[in-house]
Amino acid sequence: MAISDDEFPPVQGGGSLLLAWQVRNRKALVVGGGNVAAGRILNLLNADAKVTVITPSTGLHPEVHHRILKRQVTHIDRSFQPSDLEGPDIAMVLTAIDDPQASTQIYTLCKQKRIPVNVADVPPECDFYFGSVHRDGPLQVMVSTNGNGPKLANIVRKQIAETLPTNLGEAIVKVGSLRKRLRKVASACSEGPKRMEWMTKVCETWSLEELCDMDEDDMDNLLSHYAENKVITYKELRGIPPPSEGREVFEEAFDGSFHWF
Ligand SMILES: C[C@@]1(CC(=O)O)C2=NC(=C\c3[nH]c(c(CCC(=O)O)c3CC(=O)O)Cc3[nH]c(c(CC(=O)O)c3CCC(=O)O)/C=C3\N/C(=C\2)[C@@H](CCC(=O)O)[C@]3(C)CC(=O)O)/[C@H]1CCC(=O)O
Ligand SMILES: NC(=O)c1ccc[n+]([C@@H]2O[C@H](COP(=O)([O-])OP(=O)(O)OC[C@H]3O[C@@H](n4cnc5c(N)ncnc54)[C@H](O)[C@@H]3O)[C@@H](O)[C@H]2O)c1
């Protein structure tokens, strides 16, 4: 059977596989203690990784110093040694050092041990690149230019962030807790398709503002209609009467001014 070219999405090679890597409680090594290491450490801590920083105390960036003082990271106060890569549980290695030879050595050792590695600013020595990330609660938006223009990634990320509603993170938190409750109400595997359809309908029916305003009682109320596969609207739930037909016409036609000027 002949399939036309436009029936399925075209393949656009040359990209990266953008994933959300789960490193919670996993060990990550950062080599270096400068400005770039400070950024890498924050990225890892934001993902709840167990971070070990290998770098001499001399010349520490103040932010890295702060993380060490606050015991947010484990500090090994010396230069990198190959034995640092021993042990079965290292999820990744990030290097941010001003020594290209040492970087290449670390990269080669990581390859031998099959540990994923990022050598800051050296694309051929990266199993993965970092991106520019916007964060709002559970929401993360990452921009990658696939090595073409890191500063542009930063600019595009900020531009995207400006277009997002300020309460988006909060709305996502509410949706997260509603989904958890739903899984308690309808826990059976066989409920999967119905659960997903219902949740999709909630997200399409409720505005972000309404989701932000949703409290625990509202969730229980919404969920009480799950069995009949119904999603009641925010206004129904709050007992706000629908506008009468005449009023609706007036509202549609009303342009916000009284034509006094
Ligand atoms: C996004 C961000 C994330 C982060 O690092 O956290 C990031 N670089 C950032 C900033 C930045 N980096 C550089 C500048 C100077 C201006 C400029 O060159 O544009 C600025 C701007 C600044 O400092 O403001 C210099 C630079 N970067 C790389 C090279 C090597 C090369 O290109 O060969 C050179 C030296 C080029 C030279 O010598 O000329 C390489 C990489 N940098 C990446 C990520 C990966 C690709 C990401 C992508 O393509 O989108 C990749 C491949 C590997 C990696 O390091 O993971 C972060 C912004 C975070 C934020 O604030 O939003
Ligand atoms: N992505 C960016 O925005 C960006 C900007 C500037 C530099 N860089 C690159 O990132 C790297 C680090 O930049 P930086 O500004 O953080 O550098 P930096 O000079 O401020 O810090 C380097 C750190 O690495 C430590 N170090 C050096 N050799 C080490 C070793 N063998 N073992 C352990 N620690 C060691 C130093 O003690 C220091 O703490 C450089 O290679 C630089 O080219 C990236």
From TrEMBL:
It comes from the Eukaryota. It holds the Pfam family Sirohm_synth_M. Pathway: Porphyrin-containing compound metabolism; siroheme biosynthesis; sirohydrochlorin from precorrin-2: step 1/1. Residues 136-162 form the Siroheme synthase central domain. It is an enzyme of class 1 (oxidoreductase). Its EC number is 1.3.1.76. It catalyses: precorrin-2 + NAD(+) = sirohydrochlorin + NADH + 2 H(+). GO terms for molecular function: ferrochelatase activity; precorrin-2 dehydrogenase activity. Residues 165-231 form the Siroheme biosynthesis protein Met8 C-terminal domain. InterPro entries: Met8-like (IPR028161), Met8_C (IPR028162), NAD(P)-bd_dom_sf (IPR036291), Sirohaem_synthase_central (IPR028281), Sirohaem_synthase_N (IPR006367). GO terms for biological process: siroheme biosynthetic process. Keywords: NAD, Oxidoreductase, Porphyrin biosynthesis. This is precorrin-2 dehydrogenase.
